[in-house]
Design brief:
The chain is built from 21 helices and eight strands. The protein has 535 residues and is of the alpha+beta class. It has an eight-stranded antiparallel β-sheet with strand order 4-3-2-1-5-6-7-8. It is globular.
Length: 535
């Protein structure tokens, strides 16, 4: 790191971005997909697509839980919304609550119900978009704590690369409007600059907020000193929530109908009901909590922020009305909520969510083009020599982390449609397909790390992503050309995005496979007169 500040920052920018760049590509791509994890999960559970809400949906859910879980300790009903057409039913079985494997609260049993008929649905076993979401910050098959530490280290490298990159490129905003196609290294530099500047505030925010989410794990010393090692006390003060214990179950008793209570709550807050929770159902001390849709607020809390009314289950008497403004959040809690909501886009309407999605794509492109730029620069330097093993390794890893990851995600979606719906451990097999395809792309990239390797992998992902909508058409009734897909816009949107991405990969394939013009000067032809004179 000798020389001027800019030269030192250039060195730091290059190596902080390269050393963990392959992991950062995976983090950015899977994190970007997580903005639509609910929609991806819905696409991967076609058994739920025909569900349509009706005026009787709440009564049907009430009756269904009364039939399948009458002795449960608690009920939880999540009603359909814009991102999910079916009713999600949860309940805690009677008896002692068992801790969840790995720690945390056991969420009990669950089932899906058709919102129109009340039929209990059995969707295929899949992790859906939640697998990509969890992989984004916990990887897979790695101890959770170690995985989170690795992601945090990569994120810190990313933050260093962003700051040093801004210092290095003194004409960064001017370079944003410069693009020189077909110029090799210069083209990759222009693409890197454009994708970086296009969403620079987003890149800084998403990286910094990602570290903030793990602040207790990364820097626990201040909290431990202030609260004598009792971190639960810190969270209770920063993020206060109701800790009312449900108490023991009472004697059996019939409960009132849910319809009038839900209607009263909806009228009180002038919003539709979104969730119903019941403590000690079918008991004399049953308590019914009915919540409406929460206000969209960037500083809102994830839990406990919805306007709620609490009723006595056997009589229907109103016990309590809870409004978010009655439970103010301390300043540090508000700051944390803002950064968390920004990172997870909990506050966003569809347009803002789409903006974040494209910003995430720009971030993925920024990291990918940075690694390709590194290889292009070294290749230019060694164009008169045989590229060394290290350069071949980096190029192969680049191929696996970019085209290989895209092939793995496409194969994950395709496996959801191809694998039998009744296959044992089906969700695990979908994930195995993901990693097997990714591994195959890595082996292929290391064996063929040059132009032919890129052409072959680009051809694979082009065909794979373009085939997904047609595979959907063959295997389900809610494809791009059906009414169900357009009634649930997420389904049609998923197929359209696959076609768009497939076309993008096809364009990249055409550009890479296109023969490059021979820029060497042709040899000068002999003068005819001279040739005759020598005859």
């Amino acid at each position: 790191m000798n020389g001027s500040l800019r030269q030192s920052m250039a060195w730091l920018h290059t190596w902080s971005g390269l050393l963990l760049g392959w992991l950062l590509v995976a983090v950015f791509v899977t994190g970007t997909s997580a903005y639509y994890r609910e929609e991806i999960s819905l696409w991967m559970e076609p058994e739920l697509h025909q569900s349509t809400a009706s005026d009787d949906t709440m009564d049907l859910a009430w009756q269904t839980l009364g039939r399948i879980a009458p002795e449960a300790r608690s009920w939880d009903i999540s009603l359909p919304d814009a991102r999910n057409p079916a009713v999600q039913l949860r309940w805690q079985p009677a008896g002692e609550e068992q801790p969840r494997q790995g720690g945390g609260r056991n969420r009990g049993e669950q089932a899906w119900m058709d919102a129109g008929s009340g039929e209990v649905l059995t969707p295929r076993e899949t992790r859906g978009g939640h697998f990509l979401y969890r992989f984004h910050f916990e990887l897979y098959g790695v101890p959770r704590l170690w995985a989170r530490w690795l992601i945090c280290v990569a994120t810190m490298f990313m933050l260093v690369a962003i700051i040093s990159g801004v210092i290095t490129h003194k004409k960064i905003f001017k370079d944003f409007f410069t693009f020189r196609p077909g110029k090799g290294q210069r083209s990759w530099l222009d693409a890197h600059n454009a994708s970086a500047v296009l969403a620079l505030p987003f890149h800084f925010m998403i990286t910094y907020s990602g570290l903030l989410l793990f602040m207790v794990m990364l820097m626990p010393w201040g909290i431990d000193a202030a609260y004598d090692g009792d971190r639960r006390a810190f969270f209770d003060e920063a993020f206060p929530r109701s800790t009312e214990a449900p108490g023991p179950a009472g004697e059996p008793a019939d409960m009132v109908a849910i319809g009038p209570l839900a209607a009263a709550t909806a009228a009180r807050f002038e919003r539709p009901v979104s969730r119903i929770e019941v403590q000690h159902p079918n008991r004399e001390n049953a308590r019914i909590r009915i919540s409406v849709e929460q206000d969209v607020a960037i500083s809102g809390r994830r839990r406990g922020g919805s306007p709620t009314q609490v009723f006595q289950g056997s009589s229907g008497d109103l016990l309590e009305t809870i409004e978010p403004r009655e439970a103010p959040t301390p300043l540090m809690g508000k700051v944390y909520n803002v950064m968390t909501n920004l990172h997870l886009v909990r506050f966003a309407d569809p347009l803002v969510r789409l903006l974040f999605f494209f910003s995430g794509l720009a971030g993925s492109a920024m990291v990918a083009t940075g690694m390709l730029l590194w290889v292009s620069k070294r290749t230019q330097q060694l164009r008169r020599q045989q590229p060394g093993a290290a350069l071949k390794l980096v190029n192969g890893l680049n191929m696996a982390s970019i085209t290989g990851l895209l092939a793995a995600i496409g194969a994950y979606f395709a496996a959801n449609r191809v694998l039998p719906a009744t296959l044992a451990e089906r969700s695990s097999w979908e994930i195995r397909v993901f990693f097997l395809v990714w591994l195959a792309s890595l082996v292929h990239g290391l064996l063929r790390p040059h132009r032919r390797g890129w052409i072959e992998q680009l051809a694979v992902i082009t065909v794979l992503w373009l085939a997904l909508p047609f595979l959907d058409m063959v295997t389900t009734d809610s494809h791009l050309f059906s009414a169900a897909a357009w009634r649930l816009g997420a389904l049609a949107g998923f197929d359209l995005i696959c076609l768009l991405l497939g076309a993008l990969w096809g364009y990249a394939l055409w550009r890479v496979a296109k023969p490059k013009p021979d820029k060497r000067k042709p040899a000068r032809a002999r003068e005819p007169a001279l040739a005759e004179g020598n005859a």
